[in-house]
Design a protein that fits this description.
The chain is of the alpha+beta class. It has one domain (6-160). It contains 4 helices and 9 strands, in the order E-E-H-E-E-E-E-E-E-H-E-H-H.
């Protein structure tokens, strides 16, 4: 599966920035580590509210230990960026050391796919109307560097195959 912006281009792969912002990647589900049992758990939009806005109610669910928690909307309290979920501040399930001790992280499998498509592309095109504002435009230089491509893609593959415990 490739992101909407990744288009096969003969031997090379072209990536066109689909203009996705970080909160959009977290709108459905964020995979986190359960603080009680250490297994894979999910933070999602509260199904009762059905909201997808950045500051809408969220629900934490671990099906392994049956832990459930609610996050009420609190404007200005969510934190975006880094290897923790912006609502409950739990460690993300998809995170690993990469490229000299830096942390590669993703909210969910769709985020991993977008990162893999971007990093794997030899030709990367910016979004014409959203320069500097999209998730891929704001990636750190070490993740964008061609010298790190192999290690980053290997780390993403390792994260995709991480057992749920």
């Amino acid at each position: 599966m490739t992101a909407e912006g990744a288009v096969p281009d003969g031997a090379a792969v072209r990536f066109r920035d689909p203009a996705i912002r970080l909160p959009e990647l977290a709108a459905d589900e964020i995979d986190v580590v359960c603080p009680h049992c250490g297994c894979r758990a999910v933070v999602s939009a509260d199904p009762v509210q059905g909201a997808v806005a950045m500051h809408s109610p969220r629900r934490f669910v671990c099906t392994r230990c049956v832990t459930v928690a609610q996050w009420p909307p609190k404007v200005g309290v969510s934190r975006w960026g880094g290897p923790i979920d912006p609502y409950f501040h739990l460690p993300l399930w998809f995170q690993a050391r990469c490229c000299g001790g830096r942390t590669l992280w993703a909210f969910n499998e769709a985020h991993l796919t977008l990162l893999a498509d971007y990093v794997g592309a030899k030709l990367r095109e910016r979004h014409p109307r959203e320069p500097g504002l999209t998730m891929v435009a704001r990636l750190p230089g070490w993740l964008k560097a061609a010298d790190n491509r192999t290690e980053v893609l290997r780390t993403i593959a390792r994260l995709r195959h991480r057992p749920t415990r």
